Amino acid sequence: MHRGRHAHPAAGAQRLPEFQAPWRSRNGRDDTIRASVRAVVRLGDRLQDHTMSKEFFDAIKEGNREEVERRLALDPGLIHRKENGLSPILVAAYHQEPEIASFLADKTVAINIFEAAATGKINNIIRLLARDPELVNACAEDGFQPLGLACFFGHFESAEYLVKAGASVNARSRNELQAAPIQSAAAGGHCKIVQMLLEHNADPNIREQGGGTPLHAAAQNGDVEMIRILLYGGADLTVHNDDGKTPLDLAIEAGHEKAVLLLSEGITKRFKPRSD
């Protein structure tokens, strides 16, 4: 039987590709080649795994619950993946997808204190703190404490429970924002939570990164009810942020007429000369 010019001397075998032949001739065995093949296979698996993970997180961010459920059914392990240090639950929460965040929390065997706070799972919070009370002031990878997360996402019962369990109402987040819980609640427009925090001695004039106070956030958002609550709780109308702007300045710039009127009236009343 005629063998082609590239046939291996051994019967039925094929010659190694040219790029592998020198490797084999130097080592005298196939170990290095097999190791390389395994490495390529592992790399391919990692790339496929990365693609599946990315598509899963993309579906979360887009609010595509059907796709999230489909991918999770295909690969339940996706629930344990992280993106930039954040779990799928927190990614959903930060992208304003509370229904998906809650769904993912229910699918997770054991959510942590941060995920429970961000999704308002108060029963989980109670169980976790019963096992480890120190978690009440723990800090997540992104720098936020449980109370700050509950406040930002508007979970009143969870926030109140955390405060009563010993959460520091004036602890700033350990990241570049340096936001206290009252600032997170004010930014999120959660008046009831802000009122509760003030009743538990939260500082109405605490500053975050950039020098802004809760009143700055409320003014910039044009949140009249929040402004009233903060003023009643002792917020300073005249404080300037690092850009030299007062809450009134921000309300004017944003075109919030009702907020401008309320803040202007507050300043007038505060500095009105005594008649006596």
Rounded to the nearest angstrom, the distance between the terminal CA atoms is 123 Å
Portion of residues in helices?
A: 55-70%
Give the overall shape. Answer: globular
Radius of gyration (Å): 29 Å
Low-confidence runs of at least 5 consecutive residues: 1-14, 16-25, 33-48, 271-276
Number of strands: 0
The SS-based structural class is mainly alpha
Query: What is the count of DSSP helices, taking H or I runs of 4+ residues?
Result: 15
Quote the average pLDDT: 85
Strand content: under 5%
SSE pattern, N- to C-terminal: HHHHHHHHHHHHHHH
* Assembly state of the chains shown: single chain
Polypeptide structure, described:
- The chain has 276 residues and is an all-alpha fold.
- It has a domain at 53-109.
- 56% of the residues lie in helices and 0% in strands.
- The chain has helices at 21-27, 31-61, 65-74, 88-94, 98-107, 113-119, 122-131, 146-152, 156-164, 181-188, 191-199, 214-221, 224-232, 247-254, 257-271.
Brief account:
The protein is mainly α and 276 residues long.
Reconstruct the topology from this structure:
Elements: H1 21-27, H2 31-61, H3 65-74, H4 88-94, H5 98-107, H6 113-119, H7 122-131, H8 146-152, H9 156-164, H10 181-188, H11 191-199, H12 214-221, H13 224-232, H14 247-254, H15 257-271
Helix pairs in contact: 2-3, 4-5, 6-8, 8-9, 8-10, 9-11, 10-11, 10-12, 11-13, 12-13, 12-14, 13-15, 14-15
Task: Fill in the keyword field for this structure.
276 residues; 56% helix
